[in-house]
Amino acid sequence: MKKIGIPSNNLLHPNSHFGTNYVDYIQKNYIDGITNAHALPIVLPIGDPKLAKNYIDSVDALVLAGGQDVSPFYFGEDPQINLHETDTDRDAFEVALVLEAIKQEKPILGICRGLQIINVALGGTLFQDLNSQYQDLKVRHNQYPTKWYTPTHRLILKRVSWLQSFLDDQSLVNSFHHQAVKKLGDGLQLDAVSTDNVVEAFSDEARHIYAVQWHPEMLLMKYPEAQKLFDAFVQK
């Protein structure tokens, strides 16, 4: 059984349930997507980037989940006024994991923030806030409060890629992001965009890198066919 490492998120602030007993966690839907693909999820708690080699040594592939904004430190910008909360410890840890996984030639799947962290790890840049920085915005990319599992906008597939095995130009996806790729990182190829041309997927088959901006793990709550994305990744 393939072992899939999935780095955790962590609570940054006290809350009514845990107080100041901070926890590392990962949403169950990511675990479901991996286990339904007959792979074994291994949650990697946020740690020192120097541990990246040890963690990647212990798994067969890496899945990077959604979460906080990516710090503009990684693409040479000061924080824009509409930047949301960042977690520099998580950023540094995940960038180290991405670079180590590439070094060890182990597959990587990025989802939402995961796509963005892969992009900046490879020298790409981000729109810190689509609403204020992207002039051609026509699609609502943060569909909240619409339910997580509801598809809301269409994809346009840009080339023949791994996506064709489970998507077409009529496919709808959900959308919960306000950051997005501005410039693609080194070696990454554009696979899909939204109808207003925001990057929705990229890959680099040679380095076993695959990434989507939407949330297939949330779609799983109502649409079993969303599992095909996880299946396709594990099969690779």
UniProtKB/TrEMBL annotation:
One matching Pfam family: Peptidase_C26
Stored PROSITE patterns: GATASE_TYPE_1
Domain of life from the UniProt record: Bacteria
A molecular function (GO) term: hydrolase activity
InterPro entries tied to this protein: Class_I_gatase-like, Peptidase_C26, PuuD-like
CDD domains: GATase1_2
Keyword Oxidoreductase: no
SUPFAM superfamilies, per database record: Class I glutamine amidotransferase-like (SSF52317)
Keyword Hydrolase: yes
Keyword set, alphabetical order: Hydrolase
Protein name (Swiss-Prot/TrEMBL): Gamma-glutamyl-gamma-aminobutyrate hydrolase family protein
